[in-house]
Structures are given as C-alpha cells and as structure tokens.
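Retro notes
What went well: the complex prediction finally ran end to end.
Inputs used:
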Amino acid sequence: MSAVHNPIADYRSYPQVADLLEFARHPDLLELRWSDDRLSPFHHQWLRDNCPCAECVYSVTREQLLEIVDVAADIAPLAVAIAADGYLDIDWQGGHRSRYHPGWLRAHAYDDDPRAERLAQQRSRRLWQAEMNQQLPVFDYPTLMHDDQALLQWLLALRDLGISQVTGMPTAVDSLQGIARRIAFIRESNFGVLFNVQSKADADSNAYTAFNLPLHTDLPTRELQPGLQFLHCLVNDARGGASVFVDGFAVAEALRREAPEDFRSLCELPIEFRNKDRRSDYRCLAPLIALDALGNVSEIRIANFLRGPFDAPAQRMSELYRAYRHFIGLTRQPRFQLVCRLEAGQMWCFDNRRTLHARREFDPASGARHFQGCYIDRDELLSRIRVLQR
Ligand code: OGA
Ligand code: ZN
Ligand code: ZN
C-alpha cells in the first residue's frame, strides 16, 4: 500500500496499513471499523480539533490556527462519509468541512491496542551492566562525518543505551566541535563551549585535578542537566585515569526491586548540588532519581563532590543517608561497571542524565593528560533522530 504524505500535518508519511470500511455514529463520537476489523473511537471534538485543512492549520509553519475552545463542546457532524479515495469526510454543523487521511487516523487512533503499541515503541531503552565491557558500541569518526545512516546508528545507540565510543578521531585541539555539530548545536556553559579537562593549579572543579572523580553526572547544579556529554581524548600519557561508567537507570531499577523504600526516598527527598567560583554560583535542589509521567526513571542527578549538606526533615535524615548509601553502594559494584582507559584519538559520548561516569586517579608527574568535552541537550538528539528517520 502506498505511503501518502500529508503536507499540512507534520512532514511525516503515514502508511495506509488498513482501509476504513465503515463507521457507527454515537452521541459524542464516531466509531470507525478498519479492514483488519479493528475498531477505533474518535470523539467529535477530537476530530474537529485535528482538522488538517488550510483554515485550521497554517500551511507554512504546519502549526494550528484553530483553537478548539472556540468551537462548541457538543459539536457534531452533519454528514459523514468514507470517500472513494479512502479518506474520512465530515461536514460539520456550522458549515466546516474536514478530510482525514486514513493512514494518519490509524497512526493517531487511541483505542487501547495502538496506544499500548506506541508506548512499547517509545520504550526502546535497553538497560546494561558489566556485559557492556564486551558489547560497547564503537563508531568510526570518518564514517560518522559523511554517512548519515552511520550517524543515525550512533544516535540510536545513544538514545537506547546511553553509551558509545568513537575511534579514529583527530587529536587536534577543538576537533570535537565538528563531530558534535553533526548532531546539533553545542550547549555552552560557564566552563566554555568546549571545556578542557586537565589538571590545573587554579582548578574551579575537582574534575580539573588528578584526583579520583567518583561516579557522577555533569552539571547537576543546573535545572536542566546536559543530555549528551562528549569526552574527547587528545593526550593520555599519564599513569592511571581510567574511565568508569554505570547505567544509572539499571542501578535505579535494581534499587527499586531490592529496596523500594530507598528508591522512594531518592525520588522524594531533594538534594542540593552546588558549583561556585569567583564569578558564578550555581545551585539546584532536586531528587537523585526523577520519574516521568509514566513512572519510568527519566533522570539521575548525582555528584558527591558538588553536593551540599543534606537538608531533610530531621525525622527523615537517617532514611536519606540509608538510601543514598544504598544507591552509591550499588554503583560501586563491579557487576554494574564498564571500565576502560581512553587513548588519544578516542572519544566517549554518553547520556549524561542517565549514564554516570567516573575517572580514576592519575599521576600527573608521569605524563600529560588532556581531554576536551562538550554538551548537547537530549531534545536535540531526539530531533536529529526523527529528521534522519523521515
Ligand atoms: C569531567 C570528567 C573525566 C575524565 O570533567 O567532568 O568527568 O576522564 N572528566 O577526566
Ligand atoms: Zn479545518
Ligand atoms: Zn564529568
């Protein structure tokens, strides 16, 4: 069957997986029957709200002009027909006419089965543990720079696993910018468009020392933590300094199973994260685990070196310490850890709101070590994936 492009709606095409056969009229909805016998209810208001005509949607922006609140709540069709070209045609009270492409209707039907299918599609995330040491997705820099299909595979790995390595990178300073811009624009911070990870005498973060840097997310001090983090290795001649990664979502789900009360404490009790220097003072008060509207873990926020004193009600302080110790204890277990030392010309790219990263201590006297990093927000990643998939 053909894929028909609806120029008004949204740039996507909607395969006509089934034909409309008939409809039944009810007081506030139409029930459509498809050629595969599925039944889909569509409320009158919903149909009127989603009229794709040029009066209801501005064809240039493809954004809606109609506001459904300006239409009577009890709007009902005067006449309904399934047209010869398969479209659903409705003449409304008041004189408006709407035509709906069957593929579009099917893709947006809200009976239980398609809603469950759509939710399942959104759950493409795969949790990982130490087996990632053998399964790490590795991508080749020159290929990513010119091949959009390879780029899409990389971005899907970032979306679904939240971890990847890129090899074959140049080691010139600032060469990270080119590959980051293949995805989207970079999110600047007070540490720069690109930040330089080097041991410095006047460090404004423990990251810029040679210390062990425990498992953390970057910028938990901001209301919105950066989505993607890049860490590009230019030089790594110093002894030590291996990278450690843990899937924070896998740890949170393990905690939810092992100790639901600790999981709940970390969802409920906010923790303050702070970063300050002579010119800036960032603070954010938020729980370590965030859930989305469906109860799925959507974000981990953690960095012991940026954490302020716990400020919980006195009767819950012991509970917060117990839950915090439990979570960190899990992240320290080798069964959750990916451990790998980066060489010059290699890069990590990972979901900073999911995948915790750490650096083991290194010996700055034994050789130079220079990484450059940057951030891109998660929305940019998802937008780029959708456009590449069109
Ligand atoms: C950082 C960081 C890791 C490293 O700069 O936030 O985690 O390997 N660096 O130096
Ligand atoms: Zn219309
Ligand atoms: Zn970091």
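What we learned: Residues 1-6 have pLDDT under 50 and may be disordered.
What to try next: split runs per interface for comparison.
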